[in-house]
Specification:
Number of helices of chain A: 4
Structural class of chain A: alpha+beta
Helix content of chain A: 25-40%
Radius of gyration of chain A: 15 Å
Oligomer: homodimer
CATH architecture of chain A: 2-Layer Sandwich
Order of helices and strands of chain A: EHEEHHHE
């Protein structure tokens, strides 16, 4: 088995959205776990203020990760967060969070 | 068992040091694996240019991580890298890499 592939979503969250944000992850849909090639994930909360949360997911391959981002499971897993983003936009508010995916190969363990 | 604690070393590497840097990790001393409370680690190589390498280590607790940073195993595991840093400094060169630890609690998996 290959060492695998890692995607990290760097998420910055508005202060007034933190408790909702953490609740969404604590009660997450786990739809991602039905994807072929998914290995594991972890949601990391920074100890230092001003740092983003990291959502780290391990995959068999980059292709498996890319397939997830185009899947119904991706939409299912992000449904409540996407709803919150849409509602903020519709009411003229700033987005409650911003996120950016960065991707990695596993050099060694 | 608690969800645990994660430390990530964000390492930026000079272009002319990349091959040496990767070789050091591929042949790493594995001294860290003798530490109480150590769970696992992964060295992540960014797919996007300009991004840092991430050295991710999982621990039972923040205390276990902190104990490692003060241990003989920490010096043993970093000996060749620290030697390279010292030689660069002695010859008036820029450091071949810069690094910064950030720490996290595991909100959920």
């Amino acid at each position: 088995m290959s060492k695998g592939f890692v995607a990290i979503n760097f998420i910055r969250c508005e202060p007034n959205y933190v408790s909702r944000f953490e609740e969404l992850f604590r009660t997450r849909a786990r739809a991602i776990e039905r994807m072929a090639g998914f290995r594991s994930m972890a949601v990391l909360k920074p100890k230092q203020s001003g740092e983003p949360y990291l959502v780290v997911s391990h995959w068999d391959s980059e292709e498996a990760f890319e397939a997830w981002t185009r899947s119904p499971e991706f939409l299912e897993g992000h449904r409540r967060g996407f709803d919150d983003m849409r509602k903020a936009k519709e009411s003229g508010q700033n987005p409650p969070m911003t996120s950016e995916f960065k991707t990695y190969e596993i050099l060694t363990d």
